[in-house]
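Give me structure tokens for this 121-residue protein.
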Amino acid sequence: MTAPYSPAPHSIQEPPAVDPAPNPNTLTQLLRSIGAGAAADGQPWPERHPLRSRQIALADADCALAGQRVVQELLLAAERARQNGDPDQDVGDRVMEGLAMACLALHVFIQERVRPLGVRS
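Here you go.
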């Protein structure tokens, strides 16, 4: 008796599943697009030789600016999601107000740190 012919086993190649395009109006997608488009101007600080206390104040301001950028990106993305996204993407009025208040508080802190020593508004 002869054995029936059977081809060698091989894997079946299926085309990759096409993922649906992500909704551009979700909070996370909006944060990604906002973060990808912002850049600093790259100019050096105009003071030549700041004192040590001034260097610390500028470092504090730099840290607060990074925090303010994140809060403002969240605020902008939340507003865009509220306007253009699905209702489940809306964070609510209290969160929006809290983000706006955080922006204001960080702005005041930064303004105090960046202002030259001895100058009051």
